[in-house]
Amino acid sequence: MQPIQRGRRYLLITPARDEAEFLQQTIDAVARQTVAPAKWVIVDDGSTDGTAQIAERAAQRHRWIEVVRMKDRGRRAVGPGVIEAFYAGYAAVNADDFDYICKFDADVEIPQGYFEGLMVRMEANPRIGTCSGKPYFRTAGGRLVSEACGDEMSVGMTKFYRPECFRQIGGFVRMVMWDGIDCHRCRMLGWIACSWDDPKLRFVHLRPMGSSQRGMLTGRMRHGGGQYFMGTGLAYMTASALFRMTRPPVVLGGAAMWWGYVRSMLKRAPRYDDSGFRSFLRRFQWNSLLHGKAEATKRLNAFGECRRLGGTG
């Protein structure tokens, strides 16, 4: 492991509740990184298993690990609870002391040069505000399968940020879909949000995306409800759900997402209280349906560059 170079001081903040099954694998993967974190704050969010003990042992072995402990709220609160725990860790440090900050999950296994690879790419393009590699999950037979996350998003398991960008977007919303709202807000402000399916940046998500302590379908329904909250339109949600029907669990996963959205719509559930953001999101989604998401993102990023340079677009 190389010493931390000037300009490469990165901070990891890990919300962890009942992650004893996976946390040690995650710790081992971070300990093998080619560039060590300047600080890693592991927030024990009221775990009832051995999570806190695993984190404390790791802190004794690695001087750059610090453990913050929160009271048990009595349940896992996906979305708001995760972000509350993240901010408990964020409050324990001074973010200005670091060149990058990362919300980093306790159930991922990253390759050895993962964080160095992200920093190299961000150094090459100062407009990248947030980025990540791509998540894969292992099937029962051991095969790695992509979670098929779009190139225009940094994924929620390892959101790597420039602190300046993180501050400008107002940080994470303390609701489900915090990990979608943040990337769209980045583009609203002229930053680039992205991820790369480079073999050197692929990581294993030990708990597949969209799963839940109550099961995969519950997690997918929750995601659909989160899309409604964020402001996603019905046409785009339907197209997204049809695509997700091709991914495991085939058909049922996408159908559960669509029903989660429609159920929230029928209930007239609350939506993200920023009409400007919702209008921006709808325009992007319609352009994605008409021209493809890659082209829509390319045009939006080009407009952001033009605006940054003082042009008219």
Write up what this structure looks like:
- With 313 residues, this protein is an alpha/beta fold.
- The chain has three domains: 10-205, Alpha-Beta Complex (Spore Coat Polysaccharide Biosynthesis Protein SpsA, Chain A), CATH 3.90.550; 216-267; 275-308, no CATH class.
- The protein is 43% helix and 16% strand.
- It contains eleven helices and eleven strands.
- It has helices at residues 23-31, 51-61, 80-90, 114-124, 163-168, 178-188, 216-230, 234-244, 252-267, 275-291, 293-308, and strands at residues 10-16, 39-45, 65-70, 100-104, 108-109, 128-132, 135-138, 144-146, 158-161, 192-195, 203-205.
- A seven-stranded mixed β-sheet has the order 3-2-1-4-9-6-10, with helices on both faces.
- Strand 1, helix 1 and strand 2 (39-45) form a beta-alpha-beta unit.
- Helix 8 packs antiparallel against helix 9 and helix 10 packs across helix 11.
- The radius of gyration is 19 Å and the shape is globular.
Attribute tags:
alpha/beta; Spore Coat Polysaccharide Biosynthesis Protein SpsA, Chain A; seven-stranded mixed β-sheet; four-stranded mixed β-sheet; 11 strands; 16% strand
Short description:
With 313 residues, this protein is of the alpha/beta class. It has helices at 23-31, 51-61, 80-90, 114-124, 163-168, 178-188, 216-230, 234-244, 252-267, 275-291, 293-308; strands spanning 10-16, 39-45, 65-70, 100-104, 108-109, 128-132, 135-138, 144-146, 158-161, 192-195, 203-205. The chain folds into three domains: 10-205, Spore Coat Polysaccharide Biosynthesis Protein SpsA, Chain A, CATH 3.90.550.10; 216-267; 275-308, no CATH class.
